[in-house]
Amino acid sequence: MGMRALVVLLAAVAQANEKTHLRIRKGSPGSGAQVDAVDGSPWQPSAQQARRGVARDDGDWFAAMAGELRKSLNDTRFGKRAMPHDAMKARNLLRHILTKEKLRDSLILVLGGRLYSTQQYLHADKAKKHLLLLAAIQRRFGRLPNVFMIHETSSAGVCYYDKRLQMIPTTVIAKRGGYDDCGLLVPNPYFGRGDVGTSWAATIAELQDAANAVKERIPRVFWRGAVDNHEPSPSGRYPCEREWGNYARLESLALTREHPDLFDSKCNTLCAPRDEAAHPCDDLPYDASMTAMIKNNMSRVRDDVMYGERDYANYKYVLNLPGKTDGSYSRNLNHLWAVGSAVLLWDGPVVEWLYPALKHGETHASVSRSSAKSVVDDLQANPMKYKRLVEGAQRVQRELVSPEGLDRYMRIVVQELRKAQSQHLILDAPEDVASVFEGLDCAKLGLMETFVIHEHSQQRRYVEVGHRKVTDCQKFVNVTRWAQSVNDKDWLDEIKRDLKNDRDLRYNLTHSSAGDAKERLLDLEAEHAAHRMKIREVCTACAKKHCSVKTLDFCKRASRGYERLTRIPQHHNHDGRRLLDGGRGTYAVARAAVFRNKWVRVLMMCLDILGLVVAAVGVGGLLYVFREFHRTFDDTASGRRKRANSIDSSTNLLI
Fold first, then answer.
1. What is the CA radius of gyration of the chain?
2. In this structure, what DSSP letter does residue 175 have?
3. Cα-based distances in Å from 570 to 62, 478, 522, 586, 590
4. Nearest-angstrom CA–CA distance, 192 and 196
5. 187/193 Cα distance (integer angstroms)
């Protein structure tokens, strides 16, 4: 009897804990009903971080972020097969991902500085931008180590599941429910729309110029955006769990209605809040101010003016609110750190990649419906607190969300993934890469390489991304081999010692000229040839010098056992490399990259038209000559017939 009572008691406690957890997850990001901060911290992410045992480091923010990454990788929900500790299991993991369509369509593979995904993955705009972010990092700061990762593009933040592997480590751009959600946090793809190397750097410079140009800032909290609702399910159920963001936005608008002297938070793109009478949400009740706003058709909190990112610099305080789609992250936060204002973050469980470095009162101020007015009043009355927040935001911009900060963090993510899944055992040596793809049909895998064409507008805000299909696994492995070998650090160090006087040769091994970039766009075989040419130059130079055994061994392996590297392809079958589904061929992409100037393209088009006209005139001339020749031939033949007939008639008369 006592045992039965104990079992019933434990079941009741578990059920109560589950209900409490669900209630916390379903609450509003800014409501008092959902306070995860059990240690008294005014900002929920900091409280979550403390509970998880991730130490803060105000001197080195990246140490705290790396600690959170390691904590996420040690998640007990990950299956053992998804976290291999030897080369064979790591190889089996990658082969399993490549052969399972669902997993393969979420795969990003970085090999030798090249980015590979699938055609299905490229259908999502956010997926393309994430690839562009990785490509831009490599273009500006150098190659990423070889790595494979499963990436989830949605803002909810979920890990992929497989029957054999169980839960799989997945990179996510936000965790809606907090750090305890599954996944590894990475930057969202809206820093310069993915182009962190040029577009994002230009945006930062523009925002900082706007901040420096402001003489006096308006002492109000500024926010502009949309308030939306969701479609009920076919059964009529309203998705209240996705309503956090819109509810928080409506709360901020209510603050503007109540305190217009302190808050300037309005909707300017869409003002369509949820109808509480038709779709009530128990954890997200409307108060009197919110109900009155909706009753008046949002007239006092609606603004039809469209504001640019530079306009945020005119205000002392800039507010970031949860996203309207899932109540998760908002891309609006990306640019707020650079406008020279104090950043206010709406309190909630949502976390992003940089949150382990942030601290209430140092980098930002955490606000909610109940605390926002008192926080702003305190900052207005204490200039030193306000100055500290501004300086903290500037440090975030300088160290974290700058191109350099984004690059440093992504390299930490890559290194932690490589270490946790033993990826270095199967991706760093060309022979190991070949063993992964042994027996696989690349034509059926649907792998696509993504590369960036350096084509910008005058404001350097536009980058074109090209794609080409991988159809031959052997060629794919070969190109990867030369891409890795020609940039192998240990070998290059050895070459520097062997070829001390050949400075130009060493430079050519590690740098690419404009001509190399153009040649690289032609096709994979051409780049393969370029890498072999570089290796050939070094090995030829070593034949005249006393090179080390290591260098000579590399030359022998690079030439596949032959003494010299002589087979350099000289032709390119462009027609055979057209993309599927009407995509642009590599030749067309290369031609567009060569003729970047508008007037040069116009001139080339005119020359093409002129060539067609000349060809048409030539064909017309040939037809005219043929017709005249035919007419002359007919006239000659008819003359002969007439003469023959006249001779016959005269002969008959004589007879």
1. 33
2. B
3. 48, 17, 12, 16, 17
4. 6
5. 12
Measure Cα distances from 219 to 118, 301, 556, 649 in Å. Answer: 49, 18, 70, 119
Give the CA angle between residues 558, 561, 563 to the nearest 5°.
85
C-alpha distances out from residue 624 to 238, 348, 612, 614, 615, Å:
77, 82, 18, 15, 14
Q: Which two tokens stand for residue 145?
A: 């180590």
Q: Within a 10 A sphere around the Cβ of 373, how many other Cβ atoms?
A: 16
Q: Give the tens place of pLDDT for each residue, 30-47.
A: 333 333 333 345 799 999
pLDDT tens across 129-175, in order? 899 899 888 888 888 999 999 999 888 778 998 888 889 999 999 99
Supply angle C-alpha 371, 373, 378, rounded to 5: 95
One DSSP character per residue, 14-66 reads HHHHHHHHHHHHHS-TTSTT----TT--SSHHHHHHHHHT----SS-HHHHHH
Q: How many CB atoms lie within 10 A of CB 386?
A: 20
CA distance 449 to 527: 13
- In 3D space, the residue among 324, 323, 322 whose CA is nearest the CA of residue 347 turns out to be 322
CA neighbours within 13 Å on the CB side: how many for 403?
24
Distance CA 504, CA 164 (A): 52
How many C-alpha atoms does 27 have within 13 Å on its Cβ side? 21
Q: Is the dihedral of CA 27, 32, 37, 38 positive or negative?
A: negative
Q: How far apart are CA 251 and CA 30, in angstroms?
A: 8
Over residues 268-290, the pLDDT tens digits come to: 888 889 998 899 999 999 999 99
For the residues 120-125, what does the mean pLDDT come to?
A: 85
**Closest residue by Cα to residue 179 from 262, 102, 75:** 75
Task: Name 320's bridge partners.
Answer: 345
Tally Cβ neighbours within 10 Å of residue 629. Answer: 10
Residue 117 backbone class (left: φ over 0; alpha: ψ -120 to 50; beta: rest): beta
Q: How far is CA 91 from CA 81, 229, 478, 483, in A?
A: 11, 46, 18, 21
| CA gap 565, 557 in Å, rounded | 10
Element (H, E) at 366: strand 365-367
Taking the C-alpha atoms of residue 278 and residue 274, their distance in angstroms, rounded to an integer, is: 8
Range list of H helices, 118-220: 125-141, 199-213
